[in-house]
Amino acid sequence: MISAPPDAMTPARRLRSIFSGSVGNLVEWYDWYVYAAFSLYFADVFFPGGDRTSQLLKTAVIFAVGFLMRPLGGWLLGRYADRHGRRRALMLSVVMMCGGSLIIACTPGYASIGVAAPVLLVLARLLQGLSVGGEYGASATYLSEMATREHRGFWSSFQYVTLVMGHLIALGVLIALQRVFLTDEQLRDWGWRIPFAIGAVAALVALWLRRNMEETESFVRSDSDPGATRQQTQGTLRALMQHPRAVLAVVGLTMGGTLAFYTYTTYVHKFLVNTAGMAAETASLINASTLFVYMLLQPVVGALSDRVGRRRILIAFGLLGTLFTVPILSQLQHVQSASHAFWLVMAALVILSGYTAINAVVKAEMFPVEIRALGVGLPYALAVAVFGGTADMVALWFKKAGMETGFYWYVTACIACSLLVYLWMPDTRRTSLIDRDAR
């Protein structure tokens, strides 16, 4: 199904296109975050014995292992999206996520099948990592190409709206099971499987919706170009390496942002329970409420970037993140009330919005159409695998070693490194290669 040029779309039609591109993203990230949200309950099912920190560390290692597949997913599905279309790549990624969730939902525990249980858990996370690695580049490219130049920051920010919404739904399922439907014992025994089953079914629904997506005009126009050279360079690593500055910029601008993102959206739940000593239910409510406000901030910051530029927004995140990460985490470690914890986490997420709301469009604007999905997806996935995917594992390692504050400085250092990239790079709103697609 071929789309009309983005500039010819009515607001209603544009919204339907963005919804089609985003809804699968929501399901993918719901499935991804369910693992983190429910790890407190199934850690001892797959890793019996040992103290709670050791069990959580093992599940965090598997969480990180899933990230190792994301560069491979970014390469394979990025290449596929650049050669065969954004729509087809997005359909393929949601199929793989469905398979991973189904495996976790059905895998017996260690008591039943021994070491095969954690092995199957690893295999499922590898499949999900492959899926998410490809999803990011394809969806970021799709939303950026669907938007008009004047509102590209606003429309592309919906990638993180649906990403955070997926996380919120995962937390909502957790809170509902905790407070309404199941006892703590039932959750630890079998109830943790329910959200993975929900994710598998939801992925099938997303697949059906994505069948009706329109392809972007940028891809349709470029794919119809009969030039032999262009056909040979679609989605190739050789073509990508002709843009080393952009590749390094994606890695550099991602490292601090992705580490901060996973610290304040995923690890913070464990941090409030395992370090601050809060009840799991209270930590879940704080995590959900802060994420809801954070989700609403994304289009606001995205629209702001359309007015003042992307670079200024990124610099604001880099400066504030470098200055306030250690104070926020240090206070959060000794927080006494839920309201105090809420405002501390909320402050961190407001700062983080300067990265998350616009990072997808910034990356998409750096690459030409024939390698855009690959250029966005692969270097981003490499940075996320190294810095974002290891956030839980590194934080828990510092805690187990009795040096928890070392993690605070580690996050600060990574944000400071990204700040140097923001200061060096041009404002992609003015230099966007997407604007050249129609020429």
How would you explain this protein's 3D organization?
This protein has 22 helices and no strands. It starts with 10 loop residues before the first helix and ends in an 8-residue tail after the last helix. Mean pLDDT is 83; it is low at 1-6. Helix 1 (11-46) packs parallel to helix 4 (86-106), helix 2 (52-68) packs antiparallel against helix 19 and helix 15 (280-308) runs antiparallel to helix 16. It has 439 residues and is mainly alpha-helical. 81% of the residues lie in helices and 0% in strands. The protein has one domain (12-212, 235-436): MFS general substrate transporter like domains (Growth Hormone, Chain: A, Up-down Bundle).
What's the SSE blueprint?
Elements (H helix, E strand, L loop, with lengths): L10 H36 L5 H17 L1 H15 L1 H21 L3 H4 L2 H31 L5 H5 L1 H24 L2 H6 L4 H17 L6 H7 L4 H6 L3 H4 L3 H31 L5 H29 L1 H24 L4 H19 L2 H6 L7 H17 L2 H10 L3 H21 L3 H4 L8
Helix pairs in contact: 1-2, 1-4, 1-6, 1-8, 1-10, 1-14, 2-6, 2-19, 2-20, 3-4, 3-6, 3-19, 4-6, 4-10, 6-19, 8-15, 14-15, 14-16, 14-17, 14-19, 14-21, 15-16, 15-17, 16-17, 16-21, 20-21
What descriptive keywords fit this protein?
439 residues; disordered N terminus; mainly alpha; Growth Hormone, Chain: A; globular
What is the CATH fold-level name?
A: Growth Hormone, Chain: A
Secondary-structure element order, as H and E?
A: HHHHHHHHHHHHHHHHHHHHHH
Secondary structure tally, helices: 22
- What's the shape? globular
* Poorly predicted spans: 1-6
Q: Which CATH architecture?
A: Up-down Bundle
